[in-house]
Structures are given as structure tokens and as C-alpha cells.
Amino acid sequence: FLLCPLVFILQGWINLRQPEPYMDELFHVPQAQAFCSRNWSYDESITTPPGAYLPVAMIGLTIKQINPEAGEWVCSTAGLRLWNMFLWILLVEQLIMRTKSEAMAIALALHPVLLFYSAMFYTDLTSLLLCLTAWELSRREKHGYSALFSAAATLTRQSSALWHFFIAAEAACFIAYSSPTVRSEFGFDYKSLLGVLQRQRRSIVVNLWPHIIVGVGYPIAALINGGIMVGDQDRHEMVLHFPMVAYFAVYW
Questions:
Q1: CB 139 within 8 A of CB 105
Q2: In this structure, how many other beta carbons lie within 10 angstroms of the beta carbon of residue 30?
Q3: For residues 170 and 131, what is the distance between their CA atoms, to the nearest angstrom?
Q4: Cα–Cα distance between 90 and 19 in angstroms, integer?
Q5: What is the phi-psi region of residue 23: left when phi exceeds 0, alpha when psi lies from -120 to 50, beta otherwise?
Q6: Beta strands in the chain (DSSP E)
Q7: CB-based contact 146:167 (threshold 8 Å)
Q8: What span, in angstroms and rounded, lies between the C-alpha atoms of 172 and 86?
Q9: DSSP conformational letter for 79
Q10: Dihedral sign (CA 118, 121, 127, 130)
């Protein structure tokens, strides 16, 4: 509860210092505002799907029916940033539930990069929150809802498809080793894991078919679109980025 006033003070300071869209907000804010005005055309310079813009646009359009001025503010730069900060608070709650530790959850949520994206209207926070929700639902064996949230995360940022693969793979391992007989017969090394997955494939398919259907949809969508990115694909081609590899190695 003490953290919430602090983050809102931070966002208020950012709005005073930088009231206009900043960096990638130059693309995200106008697109969300276009949706708020019922203009469903899509800026071709944006390479991510529209999942981050639709929820706040729906809220803004609903509020406009009651109070037009309030609805316009929801879709302003400050209002869109406030929406992201609200998602950040939900993320903290999700992390507390996952880690069972408020201190650890707050430490994770205060990661400088994540906190920066939370104070601005970026797509990262929406996709992260959806991915964590999908993971939690998978842990609870609610795989239909988990696949749905994973698809929503991918419709926000395409990289979320990789996290969906991780969520489904973890669930497959849990199902494969759910039998005491299997656990006693097979080990937990990689070679044994392949044998267990092969033996338990029917049970895995029966339980994880929602993930399989959504997962098959990803390459089909990429083929129809002509690539992973939407919009300006020529300026967003996949290349090897060695400094990023070094960054992750140090971070790991």
C-alpha cells in the first residue's frame, strides 16, 4: 500500500517533465487514441499486434458514453500511462502470489527496465502480465484459460509465443511425471524425459489440446502475414545481436 503512492508520484513527475509522447510512445499513443476515436486503421510503422491498445480503448469508449470529457482523458497520454501503472500494480499482486514474498515481489517489480516501461505507455507490461497469468492458470491445470491468455499475450507482443511454448512444455512435463509408476521407472535427465513424454503423449494431448491448437495457429499466422512482424517488416528483420547475448550472459 505504501508503494502505490510512490509510483503515482513518479508518474506525476514524468508527466510534468515529459507531457508529450516519448520514444516508442510516439507510435503507441496515437494508435491507442485512434482506436478511442473508433478509427480502426493501423499504423504500418508499428510492428506489434494491437492487443495493448484494445482494452484501454474499450474502456475509453465506454466512459465516453457517460462522460465525454472523462473518456477523452482516459485516452490522453497521461491517461494511457496511468492505465499502464494500474497494470503494474496488478503485476505486483501477481508476483506476490507467485513468490509468497512481498519483498521479493516488489524487488522484481522495481527492476529499472520494467519500472520505466510501467510509467510509460508501452506494450511490454501488458504482455508480461498476460504471460504470468497464463503461467499461473497452467499451474492450476486450467489449460483452456491458460492458452487463451497466452494467445492474448502474443497478440500484444509476438515474443510472448516463446513464453507460451515454455508454459506448455512445463505443463507437459508435469503431466508426464504425474504417475508414481513413471517417476519410479524413469529418471529426470533429458534422455529419460524424452522417453516419458513419448510414453505419456496421449495424456499430454488430451490435457493440453488448447495449447496445441493455439500453438499451431502461430506459424499459420506468420505464413499468412508473410513474417513474424506486422507493419514495416523491412526495418524490423531478425538478425544476430551479439551485444544482447553478452547482456543476457552477464544478467544470468
A1: no
A2: 14
A3: 14
A4: 24
A5: left
A6: none
A7: yes
A8: 33
A9: H
A10: positive
Give pLDDT tens digits for 165-216. 999 988 888 877 766 665 555 555 566 667 677 777 788 888 889 998 998 8
d(Cα 93, Cα 189) in Å, to the nearest integer? Answer: 34
Grid cell in block for residue 132: 504470468
202's CB contacts (< 8 A; 6+ apart) are none
User: Residue 217: what residue type?
Assistant: G
- Cα–Cα distances (Å) from 217 to 155, 161, 200, in that order, read 12, 10, 24
The half-sphere exposure of 181 on its side-chain side, counting CA atoms within 13 A, is 2
- Of residues 29, 21, 46, the one with CA closest to residue 236: 46
Assigned C-alpha cell, 32: 491507442
Q: How would you label 201-218 residue by residue, b for 16+ Cβ within 10 Å and e otherwise?
A: eeebeebbebbeebbeeb
| Type of residue at 44 | E
Neighbour tally for 145: CB within 10 Å: 15
53-97: per-residue pLDDT in tens? 998 889 988 988 888 888 888 888 988 988 888 888 888 888 888
Cell numbers representing residue 55 in the block: 482494452
Determine how many CB atoms are found less than 10 A away from the CB of residue 180.
Answer: 8
